[in-house]
Write a structure and sequence with these properties.
The chain has 75 residues and is mainly α. It has 2 domains: 30 residues; 44 residues. Helix content is 85%, strand content 0%. The longest helix is centred in the last third of the chain and has 36 residues. The protein is elongated and about 75 Å long.
């Protein structure tokens, strides 16, 4: 009975750190982008973020003006 408990503890310790080897193995399979691809994708992300920010800012400004004129009767 004691041997069974010890083997479970040993398996548990091995399984706790086995994932590190699995991570390294998976990272070796990854096809990393070239510098040119990374730069192109970074620029695309920045353009999309700026575009969405401008659109949301315009919508927010429009609603703020609408609320000011309709509900606050204002200037």
């Amino acid at each position: 009975m004691a041997k069974k408990g010890q083997s479970q503890v040993t398996k548990l310790k091995k399984s706790r750190f086995a994932f590190v080897g699995d991570i390294i193995g998976e990272l070796r399979k990854v096809v990393w982008p070239t510098k040119q691809e990374a730069l192109r994708l970074t620029i695309m992300v920045l353009i999309v973020c700026i575009t969405v920010g401008l659109i949301l800012g315009a919508i927010d400004y429009g609603f703020a003006e609408l609320v000011a004129k309709v509900f606050l009767g204002g200037s």
